[in-house]
Amino acid sequence: MGYKLGKRSLSRLEGVNESLVTVVKYAIGVTKQDFSVICGMRTFSEQQELVRKGASQTMKSKHLDGNAVDLMAYCDGGGRWELNLYDEIADAMKEGAEAAGVKIRWGAAWTIDDFGDYGGTAEHAMTSYIDTRRSQGRRPFIDAPHFELMPQDVTVKVDPLPSMSNLTQ
């Protein structure tokens, strides 16, 4: 689509895990919906204030260690909050995560720990999450601007041990 991150968005990515930065930069290049980064790293006191105001639900936010970002949709020169706009951003972040080979979770589909590997669209993922929460008698918590890096699988390659015959020669 030809979008790119502005200086303010790039500055808000300072301190964010490089894998997540890679996903965000990939996503802005392929998204159908322009967006900016509104939050990357947070200090402990910033997080405390957000929890106090009810804008965040936890003091264990992945923003505190640089493993989360919040993105805002932009249309006609202003920030927008309509959920359908975030479906488009999430689809681009999904593509970016898949391309980068990292696991991310979207704040509108909390039950999917590897959004890049998810077989459906962002809209389907959010609907599935909402249905799951309602079937549990629980209210869904939709944080559509939020994307967080998940623990990655680590494969350790070990050189095979030398054969015993090599040791005795």
Structure, described:
With 169 residues, the protein is α+β, with helices and mostly antiparallel strands. The chain has one domain (7-168): Muramoyl-pentapeptide Carboxypeptidase, domain 2, CATH 3.30.1380.10. It has 6 helices and 5 strands. It has helices at residues 7-12, 18-30, 44-53, 83-100, 122-135, 164-168; strands at residues 35-39, 68-75, 78-80, 104-106, 146-149. Strands 1, 2, 3, 4 and 5 form a 5-stranded antiparallel sheet that branches. Helix 2 (18-30) crosses helix 4. The radius of gyration is 19 Å and the shape is globular. The chain starts with 6 loop residues before the first helix and ends with a helix.
Compile the SSE list and pairings.
Layout: H1 7-12, H2 18-30, E1 35-39, H3 44-53, E2 68-75, E3 78-80, H4 83-100, E4 104-106, H5 122-135, E5 146-149, H6 164-168
Antiparallel strand pairs: 1-2, 2-3, 2-5, 4-5
Helix pairs in contact: 2-4
Assigned CATH architecture? 2-Layer Sandwich
What summary fits the major beta sheet?
5 strands, antiparallel
In total, how many beta strands? 5
Helix content: 25-40%
Number of helices: 6
Question: How many structurally independent domains?
Answer: 1
CATH structural fold name: Muramoyl-pentapeptide Carboxypeptidase, domain 2
Strand content: 5-15%
User: Which stretches are low in confidence, meaning pLDDT under 50 for 5 or more residues running?
Assistant: 154-169
- Give the C-level CATH assignment: Alpha Beta
The assigned structural class equals: alpha+beta
Q: Give the overall average pLDDT.
A: 89
